[in-house]
């Protein structure tokens, strides 16, 4: 009877075992650690199946494995039985499956996930997300490029899933998104406390050509190079260094765009407030050349106060020269204050005003009438320029080249670089002009010939040429022309052909014009003057004497 009962129990148990389904391969099952040996954990997954798992699969990246006999764990059943009759299981794949389920939910809900960076790959890093491996691009590590990612390795921290594909096993995460989110919250909090005009401390984080970025405790502000100091700053690195703590003033805050403009010079005294008192007009000061441009040079009078020496105020003589050929950067120069505009923060300076006008100096050394010598600098269609002392030029006009003939005909006899002598005839220091004359070296034959000759004087001339309109005559080398109408009082005698070259004639001087070098002469005027004189001496028409009687008496008296 008992034997029949035992058989029935055995059949019942056998039937029960048949009714229990063996778990499917590729599923996650629960098991119990029954032993640890040879670096492996032996796990009983039930169903009279045992499997082995390497201990390293129970460890997080960079950590020691945490597993003990008796622990219940989930494993992935890859194969029910292998050649040794053991189940092929994996703790890592179980964690991965569980992790993917968790990550998909987090991705759908846009929640953060926790992970640890454990390796470096091309273009970025690998991150363990509790069993699933994700890719962290290098651009998503931090808000700024990271040179050394060593401190971040193995550190558990939050990440944001940017993209995932379970079928392909791809997950892309970002650490930067987390930092920017927390940074935005911190920035909003800091900006909410800032007001324009506040003086705050900050740390210089970055320096560029146009300024520096200053960390105000979670938010950066731009300190522009023009707001660093009242003086000219060529590059921010002249006065700032990365990591330096500086005191700045909040100039402007845009709470929508979170942009902050900062200034350092606003916390210092403005030197322009006392410019007019320190630098009165026409006062002379020593300054330093800070910048040179095509139109002039900037000279620093004191820290924060610069003035412009325009190119026209740099030299008395160098007119068309670049300022860089007159002064150099950092050179100390003497300048005169010409004009001040405090509203526009402009000071006009003069360099040449600190030196005497070379034309005035020349006038003192070489007054009009002085003979000078110089080199022919340039020849033009209206004359030539002669180089004189102190880099100034004098001009010899065509009309001052020769007394005889035309200047156009003789200027070809002169050449650039040739040394010539000339006489100073005019100096205009205000217009910076000096007139010279080469023909004056030999004296003025016209002036010499007409010295002592006055209008109305009777002089003797020699006929040098006969023309239809009159005759050409010479008086002590000064030539003149007597028109036909001036050859005689009598119209019948107004014939040029009645004279011959070489004839000596007494004529009356009617005009002397030194500018045109013209001597007006007339035989007719002499005859009329003689007649008038005779009438006055020997009678008049009222006495009844005839003109013939008067002239006859005058002739007898002359005889």
From TrEMBL:
Cellular component, GO annotation: cytosolic small ribosomal subunit
Domain S1 motif: 26-92, 110-176, 197-265, 282-352, 369-439, 456-524
Keywords assigned by UniProt, alphabetized: Repeat, Ribonucleoprotein, Ribosomal protein, RNA-binding
Alphabetical list of InterPro entries matching this protein: NA-bd_OB-fold (IPR012340), Ribos_protein_bS1-like (IPR050437), Ribosomal_bS1 (IPR000110), Ribosomal_protein_S1-like (IPR035104), S1_domain (IPR003029)
GO MF, one annotated term: structural constituent of ribosome
One Pfam family here: S1
Biological processes per GO annotation: translation
Domain of life according to the entry: Bacteria
Family listed: Belongs to the bacterial ribosomal protein bS1 family.
Known function: Binds mRNA; thus facilitating recognition of the initiation point. It is needed to translate mRNA with a short Shine-Dalgarno (SD) purine-rich sequence.
Protein name, as recorded: 30S ribosomal protein S1
């Amino acid at each position: 009877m008992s034997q029949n009962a035992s058989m029935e129990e055995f059949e019942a148990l056998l039937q029960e075992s048949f009714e229990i389904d063996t778990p499917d391969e590729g599923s996650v099952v629960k098991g119990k650690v029954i032993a640890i040996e040879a670096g492996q954990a032996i796990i009983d997954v039930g169903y009279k199946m045992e499997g082995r798992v390497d201990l390293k699969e129970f460890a997080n990246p960079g950590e020691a494995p945490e597993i003990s006999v008796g622990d219940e764990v989930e494993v992935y059943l890859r194969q029910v039985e292998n050649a040794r009759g053991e189940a092929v299981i994996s703790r890592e794949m179980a964690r991965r499956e569980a992790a993917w389920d968790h990550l998909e939910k987090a991705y759908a809900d846009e929640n953060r996930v926790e992970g640890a960076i454990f390796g470096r790959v091309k273009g970025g890093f690998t991150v363990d997300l509790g069993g699933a491996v994700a890719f962290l691009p290098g651009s998503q590590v931090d808000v700024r490029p990271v040179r050394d990612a060593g401190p971040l390795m193995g550190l558990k921290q939050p990440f944001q899933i940017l993209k995932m594909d379970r079928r392909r096993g791809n997950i892309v995460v970002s650490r930067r998104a987390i930092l920017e989110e927390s940074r935005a919250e911190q920035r909003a909090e800091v900006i909410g406390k800032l007001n324009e005009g506040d003086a705050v401390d900050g740390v210089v984080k970055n320096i560029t050509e146009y300024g520096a970025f200053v960390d105000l405790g979670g938010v950066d502000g731009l300190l522009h190079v023009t707001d660093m100091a009242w003086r000219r700053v060529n590059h921010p690195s002249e006065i700032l260094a990365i990591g330096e703590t500086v005191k700045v003033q909040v100039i402007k805050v845009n709470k929508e765009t979170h942009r902050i403009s900062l200034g350092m010079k606003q916390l210092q005294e403005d030197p322009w407030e006392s410019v007019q008192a320190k630098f009165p007009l026409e006062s002379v000061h020593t300054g330093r050349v800070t910048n040179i441009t095509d139109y002039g040079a900037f000279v620093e009078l004191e820290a924060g106060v610069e003035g412009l020496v325009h190119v026209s105020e740099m030299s008395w003589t160098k007119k068309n020269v670049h300022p860089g050929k007159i002064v150099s950067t950092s050179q100390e120069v003497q300048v005169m204050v010409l004009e001040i505009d405090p509203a526009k923060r402009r000071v006009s300076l003069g360099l040449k005003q600190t030196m005497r006008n070379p034309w005035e100096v020349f006038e003192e050394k070489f007054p009009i009438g002085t003979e000078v010598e110089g080199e022919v600098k340039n020849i033009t269609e209206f004359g030539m320029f002669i180089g004189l002392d102190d880099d100034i030029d004098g001009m010899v006009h065509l009309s001052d080249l020769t007394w005889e003939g035309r200047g156009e005909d003789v200027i070809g006899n002169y050449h650039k670089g040739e040394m010539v002598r000339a006489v100073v005839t005019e100096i205009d220091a205000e217009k910076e002009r000096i007139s010279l004359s080469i023909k004056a070296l030999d004296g003025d034959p016209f002036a010499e010939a007409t010295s002592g000759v006055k209008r109305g004087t009777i002089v003797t001339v020699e006929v040098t040429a006969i023309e239809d309109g009159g005759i050409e005559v010479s008086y002590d080398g000064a030539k003149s022309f007597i028109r036909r109408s001036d050859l005689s009082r009598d119209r019948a005698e107004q014939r040029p052909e009645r004279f011959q070259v070489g004839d000596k004639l007494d004529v009356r001087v009617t005009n002397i014009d030194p500018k045109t070098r013209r001597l007006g002469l007339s035989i007719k005027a002499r005859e009329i003057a003689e007649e008038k004189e005779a009438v006055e001496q020997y009678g008049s028409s009222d006495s009844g004497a005839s003109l013939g009687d008067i002239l006859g008496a005058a002739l007898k008296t002359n005889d």
